[in-house]
Design goal:
The protein is of the alpha/beta class. It has a single domain, classed as Hexapeptide repeat proteins (UDP N-Acetylglucosamine Acyltransferase, domain 1, 3 Solenoid). It has four helices and 14 strands. The protein has helices at about 1-10, 20-35, 40-60, 170-185, and strands spanning about 60-65, 70, 75, 80-85, 90, 95, 100-105, 110-115, 120, 125, 130, 135, 140-145, 150-155. The strands form three sheets. A five-stranded parallel sheet has the order 1-4-7-10-13. The radius of gyration is 25 Å and the shape is elongated.
């Protein structure tokens, strides 16, 4: 357990104020508590984990269930709005940003995310899929099918729409004319 604490501390930039650090420490404690062989000890540690997990969601904005299998050096860049299903499998060196959901499909199947994946803000990865090693999931992407290794997944940028409002100079001229018309009718 102590080596896991040291590793998480280093991964999260040796910053005790990092909410991602505290969420991951809570997760690692929950996994460690579940692995205890002495049943009464496991039960007590499980209750402590339950309280810590509840507080962690409130204080960090992250829900990382201890049932998830998360590899080493999992990094949370911006904590907040992150949900990781208890059935998710995540490899080593994965980086996650804020407002990310790694969840299940209607049948309760969760994704497997391989090593070295970057998940941008607002991304949703749902269902029984594989995200290949080294892939990059862009902001606000919704991923519901397998992604090959070293692939970049993005949401298409919106097409540029023509500006239908009049230019600023026309608006100023119309405003000046109205003021002149109001002054002329008032005299």
């Amino acid at each position: 357990m102590l080596s896991a604490i040291r590793t998480e501390y280093r991964v999260h930039g040796r910053n005790l104020r990092d909410p991602g650090l505290w969420a991951m420490l809570t997760y690692r404690f929950g996994v460690w508590a579940r692995q205890q062989h002495f049943a009464p000890c496991r039960w007590i540690l499980g209750k402590i984990y339950g309280c810590l997990a509840f507080l962690s969601v409130i204080l960090t904005g992250m829900k990382v269930d201890r049932g998830a299998r998360i590899g080493n050096r999992f990094r949370v860049l911006h904590a907040g709005g992150i949900f990781i299903s208890n059935r998710a499998v995540i490899g080593d060196d994965v980086i996650v940003m804020h407002n990310v959901t790694i969840g299940v499909d209607p049948l309760g199947r969760a994704p497997t995310i391989h090593d070295g994946v970057f998940i941008g803000p607002g991304a949703c990865i749902l269902g029984h899929i594989q995200v290949g090693a080294g892939s990059r999931i862009g902001p606000n992407a919704v991923v519901m099918q397998d992604i090959p290794e070293n692939t970049i997944v993005t949401v298409p940028a919106p097409t540029k729409m023509p500006n239908l409002s009049p230019p600023v100079s026309v608006v100023k001229i119309n405003r000046i004319r109205r003021m002149e018309d109001g002054a002329a009718s008032g005299s």
